[in-house]
Amino acid sequence: xxxxxxxxxxxxxxxxxxxxxxxxxxxxxxxxxxxxxxxxxxxxxxxxxxxxxxxxxxxxxxxxxxxxxxxxxxxxxxxxxxxxxxxxxxxxxxxxxxxxxxxxxxxxxxxxxxxxxxxxxxxxxxxxxxxxxxxxxxxxxxxxxxxxxxxxxxxxxxxxxxxxxxxxxxxxxxxxxxxxxxxxxxxxxxxxxxxxxxxxxxxxxxxxxxxxxxxxxxxxxxxxxxxxxxxxxxxxxxxxxxxxxxxxxxxxxxxxxxxxxxxxxxxxxxxxxxxxxxxxxxxxxxxxxxxxxxxxxxxxxxxxxxxxxxxxxxxxxxxxxxxxxxxxxxxxxxxxxxxxxxxxxxxxxxxxxxxxxxxxxxxxxxxxxxxxxxxxxxxxxxxxxxxxxxxxxxxxxxxxxxxxxxxxxxxxxxxxxxxxxxxxxxxxxxxxxxxxxxxxxxxxxxxxxxxxxxxxxxxxxxxxxxxxxxxxxxxxxxxxxxxxxxxxxxxxxxxxxxxxxxxxxxxxxxxxxxxxxxxxxxxxxxxxxxxxxxxxxxxxxxxxxxxxxxxxxxxxxxxxxxxxxxxxxxxxxxxxxxxxxxxxxxxxxxxxxxxxxxxxxxxxxxxxxxxxxxxxxxxxxxxxxxxxxxxxxxxxxxxxxxxxxxxxxxxxxxxxxxxxxxxxxxxxxxxxxxxxxxxxxxxxxxxxxxxxxxxxxxxxxxxxxxxxxxxxxxxxxxxxxxxxxxxxxxxxxxxxxxxxxxxxxxxxxxxxxxxxxxxxxxxxxxxxxxxxxxxxxxxxxxxxxxxxxxxxxxxxxxxxxxxxxxxxxxxxxxxxxxxxxxxxxxxxxxxxxxxxxxxxxxxxxxxxxxxxxxxxxxxxxxxxxxxxxxxxxxxxxxxxxxxxxxxxxxxxxxxxxxxxxxxxxxxxxxxxxxxxxxx
Length: 919
Hints:
Elements: E1 3-4, H1 10-30, E2 47-50, E3 54-55, H2 72-91, E4 95-96, H3 99-107, H4 120-127, E5 131-144, E6 149-161, E7 166-177, H5 185-190, H6 201-219, E8 232-237, E9 243-244, E10 249-256, E11 261-266, E12 270-279, E13 282-288, E14 294-305, E15 311-324, E16 332-339, E17 342-348, E18 355-363, E19 371-376, E20 380-383, E21 391-400, E22 412-415, E23 418-423, E24 430-432, E25 435-439, E26 442-445, E27 450-453, E28 458-461, E29 466-469, E30 472-476, E31 483-487, E32 493-495, E33 500-509, E34 515-517, E35 521-530, E36 535-539, E37 544-548, E38 551-553, E39 557-569, E40 572-573, E41 578-590, E42 593-594, E43 600-610, E44 625-631, E45 633-635, E46 644-646, H7 655-674, H8 678-691, H9 695-707, H10 711-724, H11 729-741, H12 745-758, H13 763-772, H14 778-783, H15 807-819, H16 823-836, H17 840-853, H18 856-869, H19 874-886, H20 890-903, H21 908-918
Parallel strand pairs: 1-5, 2-4, 2-5, 3-5, 9-15, 23-25, 24-27, 25-28, 26-29, 27-30, 28-31, 29-32, 30-33, 31-33, 32-34, 33-35, 34-36, 35-37, 35-38, 36-39, 37-39, 38-40, 39-41, 40-42, 41-43, 43-44
Antiparallel strand pairs: 5-6, 6-7, 8-10, 10-13, 11-12, 11-14, 12-13, 14-15, 16-17, 17-20, 18-19, 18-21, 21-22, 45-46
């Protein structure tokens, strides 16, 4: 029983404790070293057993502060005394019978105490030993009080041999207290210091018992039968802590003779953990518990080896090592909320795990070091030490009752808003801190920049103000925290060419137009546009959009689609003058509510097919629509509750029928082009393209617009075609030729460079680009080094200024000279190369060289020779036909194209050339 004096006993116990301290100190000062008892060598037993200690409780138990008989403290002291005595006897050279074997044999007699009545001779025979040690605990105290701590022990040992002779009796005592006069080396180490008073009581008592064991070892006779084992003064460990968690240390301190090699084992879990000498005779070993370690009730054994190989093992008794480094589960559903008071972090307790607390950590970045803010047993924490406009990152860890920490929860980002209104920058970019912003004039998100707006942000626009997006605008609110754009007479968000806007859960008020889309892209979901006249959303030429879950009301015209392409889904357009006006472009309407608009719900200036929308009625004659609008089906009430009313069977507008109509328009358009009916061709081809994107339709439509003199429209057509089919070489070639013929060679070269990135293996693009490059001046030829492609490792680009000796070198040198615009040299080198071997690329470069030189006679020879050598190379026919047509020899050019088509019937460039020449 550990006696703990409470506050009410302090006064009464203080005098008694002080008197005890003085008495104990005085007694200790009078103690003299005991003499070693003499035992004849032939009487000393070789193998010995240490019997279980007998605790002789004081007669007047109530008047003492001793441990209680039968208590947990008694068992701890008995086991430790027995183990320490056994360790000391082993150190003196005795052969020791293992304690568990001794106990098993003693229990074999039936009654647990039956052995006490047996004679030493009978016990030696039973235990198969030559001698016995009888430990008797005369007194034991484990006292912790406010003003005084006392740990003391008095033990008497008796030794008998197998003949029953009493070889001696030794009595020793030891104590550990605040004020003490050391009586031994261990006693000097064991005096309690103020800083150590929070150590476990068992550890203090363990040191007392070690002290007593060392004293007894000094008076017990040595064994004459074995070599002297390494001497141990003391062993100090922290195994009395109980359970060890991840990151904690098992520490062992050993005071023994100098020059030893020492290790310790934790059962079979970890063996041979090294102990390093820290000073003469002092050794220290540490094992740091790792995450995932798990072991229970393991013994601690210390091994000491002398330089001559003599080994001794010390078993720590009276305690065991238990390791539980299994991490608990992490907190669940972590979330944050920023308020004026600070940022509150909230989480949920995991379903499993013996948890004690939660640790909250914070950082200024999502990765890297996180600093601990606090620990709490609650499921939320308010971080009040935050600043407006700053972003913080949080994570939470579970901590179990042992001290193991879980892996961190998911990192949560939280930004403290500006709670007072601030002015939005003229050039905003990056993540925008949530808060209140005023906007005056025009704020521009520049090309290449990204402006990200967080939920809960609010904008107040001054009259005439607008937000122009040339880069990327991400305004993504949430259902609970919308983004608000409001003001009076402001001009909304404008999406410029190459701009992109992704917006959701946002409200617009007092704007016209609220959103204006140019040749950019808009993805808007769950937005609310409310106006007072003007227009809600305008999607202009070249724009692409998706509008889903929107609400548009209060405008003269709710939505205007003017040559843009996109979808409107699950949206409500109501209480406007005109709900939706579709001028041109491509539009899909599905599951929308377009009704209750005062003038018309929908106007279309081109044919459009719509279905699955609520238009205010399920009767066709009552629809408020105007224009060429085919309604295939209606919803009989607003989406999502309306039922579908079929007006036209889907069989009448199947994909197969739509494809058939597309092919018909495409065929008629190409036929009209061939017959030089360019007006009809344009109408058919434009209609076909409105139904489906097609490479050939883009090409024929572009050629048609060129012939009609509508170069700007032709360029837009080609630009759209390239966006739809970025790997179609013909579109780039036609576009580049169009630009070059209009004197825009620089733009043509840039376009070809882009095409070469998309189609790196297409050589005709490179040749075409080279033909557009300007010839450098003689001065530039001398001063500037030509730009070369990267040469593969192990190869060298031949120098066109030096003589080449084989086909490969001649060809490469000729191409190099062509790129340097040294055309005469290129012609000579390429001719030499072709005199050694036939090669398509060499013929093509030679033809372009002679074309640039104006060497018509040689050009025709080259092209004829090339076609003869490579009759399936369509590019040679194409160049030759182009050359002939430029001279006005159209019939010869057509004949050559026909010849090429026989060899290459599927070549689209030759087909296009033929159609073009026929005009």
